[in-house]
Design brief:
Blueprint (H helix, E strand, L loop, with lengths): L10 H12 L3 H8 L1 H4 L2 H27 L8 H16 L9 H8 L4
Length: about 110
Protein backbone atom coordinates (compact mmCIF):
# COMPACT_ATOMS: atom_id res chain seq x y z
CA UNK A 1 0.00 0.00 0.00
CA UNK A 2 1.17 3.50 -0.67
CA UNK A 3 0.51 6.75 1.11
CA UNK A 4 -1.96 7.78 -1.58
CA UNK A 5 -5.68 7.01 -1.20
CA UNK A 6 -6.81 3.74 -2.75
CA UNK A 7 -9.35 4.07 -5.56
CA UNK A 8 -11.62 1.10 -4.75
CA UNK A 9 -12.28 2.14 -1.15
CA UNK A 10 -15.78 2.89 -0.01
CA UNK A 11 -16.66 5.40 2.68
CA UNK A 12 -17.67 2.39 4.81
CA UNK A 13 -14.13 0.97 4.49
CA UNK A 14 -12.60 4.26 5.59
CA UNK A 15 -15.03 4.67 8.49
CA UNK A 16 -14.42 1.16 9.88
CA UNK A 17 -10.65 1.60 9.50
CA UNK A 18 -10.74 4.92 11.36
CA UNK A 19 -13.00 3.62 14.12
CA UNK A 20 -10.62 0.71 14.62
CA UNK A 21 -8.05 3.20 15.91
CA UNK A 22 -10.41 5.47 17.85
CA UNK A 23 -11.96 2.61 19.81
CA UNK A 24 -9.00 0.21 19.72
CA UNK A 25 -8.99 -2.75 20.17
CA UNK A 26 -12.77 -3.22 20.49
CA UNK A 27 -13.88 -2.09 17.02
CA UNK A 28 -10.98 -3.93 15.40
CA UNK A 29 -12.12 -7.16 17.02
CA UNK A 30 -15.73 -6.53 16.00
CA UNK A 31 -14.64 -5.84 12.40
CA UNK A 32 -12.74 -9.12 12.27
CA UNK A 33 -15.79 -11.00 13.53
CA UNK A 34 -18.00 -9.62 10.74
CA UNK A 35 -17.65 -11.64 7.51
CA UNK A 36 -18.28 -8.74 5.14
CA UNK A 37 -15.78 -6.49 6.93
CA UNK A 38 -12.92 -8.94 7.36
CA UNK A 39 -13.02 -9.77 3.64
CA UNK A 40 -12.17 -6.15 2.79
CA UNK A 41 -8.33 -5.86 2.79
CA UNK A 42 -8.28 -2.20 3.88
CA UNK A 43 -10.53 -2.82 6.89
CA UNK A 44 -8.75 -6.03 7.83
CA UNK A 45 -5.30 -4.41 7.71
CA UNK A 46 -6.31 -1.47 9.90
CA UNK A 47 -8.34 -3.65 12.28
CA UNK A 48 -5.44 -6.03 12.88
CA UNK A 49 -2.93 -3.19 13.10
CA UNK A 50 -5.04 -1.29 15.63
CA UNK A 51 -5.42 -4.40 17.79
CA UNK A 52 -1.69 -5.16 17.78
CA UNK A 53 -0.73 -1.50 18.35
CA UNK A 54 -3.19 -1.05 21.22
CA UNK A 55 -2.04 -4.24 22.95
CA UNK A 56 1.61 -3.20 22.54
CA UNK A 57 0.89 0.25 23.94
CA UNK A 58 -1.06 -1.17 26.89
CA UNK A 59 1.89 -3.41 27.76
CA UNK A 60 4.43 -0.60 27.38
CA UNK A 61 2.29 1.88 29.35
CA UNK A 62 1.86 -0.64 32.17
CA UNK A 63 5.59 -1.29 32.39
CA UNK A 64 6.41 2.42 32.27
CA UNK A 65 3.79 3.17 34.94
CA UNK A 66 5.23 0.51 37.25
CA UNK A 67 8.80 1.68 36.73
CA UNK A 68 7.94 5.37 37.23
CA UNK A 69 5.58 4.73 40.17
CA UNK A 70 2.49 5.77 38.24
CA UNK A 71 3.81 8.87 36.49
CA UNK A 72 4.07 6.95 33.22
CA UNK A 73 0.27 7.00 33.06
CA UNK A 74 0.54 10.63 32.03
CA UNK A 75 1.59 9.48 28.56
CA UNK A 76 -1.79 7.80 27.90
CA UNK A 77 -3.51 10.98 26.59
CA UNK A 78 -0.57 11.55 24.25
CA UNK A 79 -0.87 8.00 22.93
CA UNK A 80 -4.59 8.52 22.37
CA UNK A 81 -3.78 11.57 20.24
CA UNK A 82 -1.45 9.39 18.18
CA UNK A 83 -4.29 6.91 17.66
CA UNK A 84 -6.55 9.80 16.58
CA UNK A 85 -3.93 10.84 14.02
CA UNK A 86 -3.79 7.28 12.68
CA UNK A 87 -7.61 7.27 12.51
CA UNK A 88 -7.51 10.48 10.48
CA UNK A 89 -4.99 8.95 8.07
CA UNK A 90 -7.11 5.81 7.70
CA UNK A 91 -10.22 7.90 7.06
CA UNK A 92 -8.33 9.67 4.28
CA UNK A 93 -7.73 6.25 2.70
CA UNK A 94 -4.01 6.26 3.43
CA UNK A 95 -1.83 3.45 4.64
CA UNK A 96 -0.90 3.93 8.29
CA UNK A 97 2.71 2.85 8.79
CA UNK A 98 3.42 2.06 12.44
CA UNK A 99 7.08 1.20 13.03
CA UNK A 100 7.57 -2.50 13.77
CA UNK A 101 3.81 -3.18 14.00
CA UNK A 102 3.01 -2.86 10.28
CA UNK A 103 5.88 -5.10 9.24
CA UNK A 104 5.10 -7.58 12.02
CA UNK A 105 1.48 -8.14 10.96
CA UNK A 106 2.46 -8.43 7.29
CA UNK A 107 5.23 -10.94 8.08
CA UNK A 108 2.82 -12.99 10.19
CA UNK A 109 0.37 -13.08 7.29
CA UNK A 110 -2.39 -11.48 9.35
CA UNK A 111 -2.96 -8.73 6.78
CA UNK A 112 -1.64 -7.67 3.38
Amino acid sequence: MSNEPMSDLTSDDKLWAALSYVFAPLVGIIALLMEDKKNRPFIKFHAVQSIVASIAFIIVATIVSVVTLGFGGLCVPLLWLVFLYWAYQAYQGQDVKIPMVSDFIRNQGWAK
